[in-house]
Amino acid sequence: QTDDPDEEEMEAEGVQAKPTEAEAAPERAQAEAHEEPEGPLERDTPKLKLITGAYVATVVLVVICVIATRQVFLQTIGAELKRKVAEPVSQELTDLRASEHERLNNYQWIDQQRGVVRMPADRAKAIVLTHYSQIPIEPVVEENPEIDDEPPPPPEPKGEGGGAGAGGGDGAGEDGAKPGDEKKDEKGEEKKGDEKKPEEKKGDEKKPEEKKPEKKQAPTGGGAPPPDAPYP
Q1: Which end of the chain is less crowded, N or C, counting CB atoms within 10 A of the terminal residue's CB?
Q2: What is the pTM of this model?
Q3: Residue 185 domain-assigned?
């Protein structure tokens, strides 16, 4: 102990202010009783089993679809190859091809009375090309060239009074121009216009006539000509 009274008072106050453990225990229990309990903590790890199972199922389904599609494709292609390549050609198709080849590559009578013969296709093409290569190409003729080149007709004097008016004076000239003379002049011009129509027909008559290729007839004989025989 110290002899200073102030220090003794301060120590006494400090001892009184500090609660004891027995006094603080009821207050702590009362405070804890009023607090709500904390909930459970959330899981911070994903559901790996569920994700892995879904991924594996998707991969297996895709693989199964690919294998099934490939098998269907191979089966379809194999059936078509077997039907078109592996199997033998039918006898009907073989006979049809042989008959068509014989018709197209041999001579044969179509109408023996008229002398019409069927010839091979290659021979017919050669004859047609040779025939048309020898025909000259005619120049194009313009229609009615003479009518365009003719000059217009000179004007003619109207009426008989025109000449009399020139010799006898102005009065005679006025008497010469009468309505009857004008009508005659109009009729004369119409007749002249009609007379020019035959000239237009001349241009139409000068058009070249188209030459038609002559049809060649095969000789009328008892049997069909041989394949190597020339075209008649």
Answers
A1: N
A2: 0.26
A3: no
Q: Which tokens belong to 80?
A: 């078509």
Domain of residue 60, residue span: 48-87
Report how many domains make up the chain: 2
Confidence check: pLDDT of 119 > 50: yes
CB 147 within 8 A of CB 199: yes
Lowest mean pLDDT among 39-43, 71-75, 201-205: 201-205
Residue scoring higher pLDDT (171 or 47): 47
Distance between CA atoms of 159 and 181, rounded to whole angstroms? Answer: 5
3-state secondary structure of 117: strand
pLDDT of residue 204: 47
Q: What confidence score (pLDDT) does residue 29 get?
A: 67
Q: Round to whole Å and give the CA distance between 85 and 45.
A: 63
81 and 95 share one domain = no
- Residue, of 65 and 162, whose pLDDT is higher: 65
CA–CA separation, 173 and 166 (whole Å): 7
Q: Which residues of 114-137 are buried (b: 16+ CB within 10 A; e: fewer)?
A: eeebbbeeeeeeeeeeeeeeeeee
Which H/E stretch holds residue 108? strand 108-111
Is residue 106 a part of any domain in this protein?
yes
Distances from the Cα of 101 to the Cαs of 92, 121, 122, 148, 223, in angstroms?
14, 11, 12, 60, 20
- Closest among 164, 159, 214 to 181, alpha carbons compared: 159
Q: How far apart (Å, rounded) are the C-alpha atoms in residues 111 and 224?
A: 11
